[in-house]
Amino acid sequence: MSFFSTGAQPAEALPDSTLAYVSIDLDPSGGQKIEAVRTLNKFPEFKDQLGLETDDDVRRWVFDEIQGSDDACANLDYEDDLESWLGNRAAIAAVDTGADSPTVAAVVQVTDADAAESGLVKLQNCAAGGDAAAPASGDDTGGFAIAGDWAVIAETDELAERIVTDTEKATLADDADYQKWTEAAGDPGIVSIYASPEAPAAMSDGFLDPMTGMFLGAPVSSTFESTERNVGGEGEPGEMVNPDAVPVNPPMVDEALAEFGGMAATLRFDDGAIELESAGDFGQQAATLYGSDGGDDVMATLPGDTVAAFGMGFEEGWLTQLVERLAASAGEDLTADELLAEVSAETGLHLPNDVETLAGESAVVALGPGFDADQLMNSADGSDIPVGVKVKGDPAAIEKVLDKLRGQLGGEELAFMDTDADGDVIAIGPNADYRGELLADGGLGDSETFQDVIREAEQAGVVFYLDFDAGDDWLLELVGDDPDAAKNLAPLGAVGMSAWQEDGVSHGVVRVTTDD
Length: 516
Description:
Strand order of the largest sheet: 4-5-3-2-1-6-11-12-20-19-18-13-14-15-17-16
Radius of gyration: 27 Å
């Protein structure tokens, strides 16, 4: 039971008013430790520089690295000041404590409360003056509070105590949203990420990307009430004339924030691979873009030696839905029909029909083996590069759309519009031989590499695939005469990304595999 368990997590030491949370577990389950060491030790640089085994003290290694850098602290000893109390789990969180803005706090596992208090004071001294033995003074030394097996570190002792008090009422670990999304994100690993439904609106200094769920550190607002930027008067160009203006979210951002229902992600080791899995509710716009289950329909039929591919599946009317949402959320007087008509007039295409016809039910952009970096950068017309687009749809109708585009192109660009078709599949690209390979069913989806690196391929709406071993060691050729880089890139197998919707939940997995 000890081998398979993960132990107490920092979410137990934070209140249910926590808005966002990132934790690290240096003592995960036995399976994770074995997988981590087995996977990372395949890379010579990791093995030579760190030399970690499953029973090594990672905390000691981190301490030695810091003390050996410019951030070293005088009179601080690992055995005397840290080892006796420092646990293996920690987190950073943004907590709603009732103030105007969220409180940023850290939670650290402790094994001895008395020793922890002494050690944290010395760390405060280090932060204040770089000397653990020199008592810190002033208001910017930070504060902490110890409760049970956890130390809460915040800007002041009062804020740390407030978080402890709020946690006693209800913990993040027991919060329904936290449980829902962390469970949806799959098995625990070494890093966990969580954002509550209230997180984007509450964090004025950043927001969650509605498509990826990634927290962005830039300000939410892109427009400013009563604010102008200098374009030629006094001061530097672009300088904000009124720096005290109130940020105002664009309507599109406001709608994305309102639709956000929470998310969680986990970074784990799995069968020789490093995997980041996320699950969340990013609103209807996410469902529009990757709600289809046809992302791999065409990709699975690519040649087995495909180097790279990006595929998407499309539901009927997807572009219309997307433009309608964009027009509705943009806060402009322009309707979706007017926007489509305007773009149609500029491009010569009839939108949305022509674009939806061109994309078909499922489409993939693919790159085959037998290329080099110079070809990719300097090819005159692309005819010597194994690159192309494969679409499942109506080839005759697609040809008509391509004719409209060909009328606006000339010279070498036309080569990229060459096509071959077979049944309901059309291959588009400059290389005739590669178009022929694309039309055949090459069985990529049945390959061991594809199945290992792409999760839930059959229900994915978006799929990305990159095989480091395809062809003649193309990755190693890119690094040239750098033997160290070559040795550390050699263990890489493939990279895959898949995104899908299931019961209203948006799922995504990025997976990096290694060779045996």
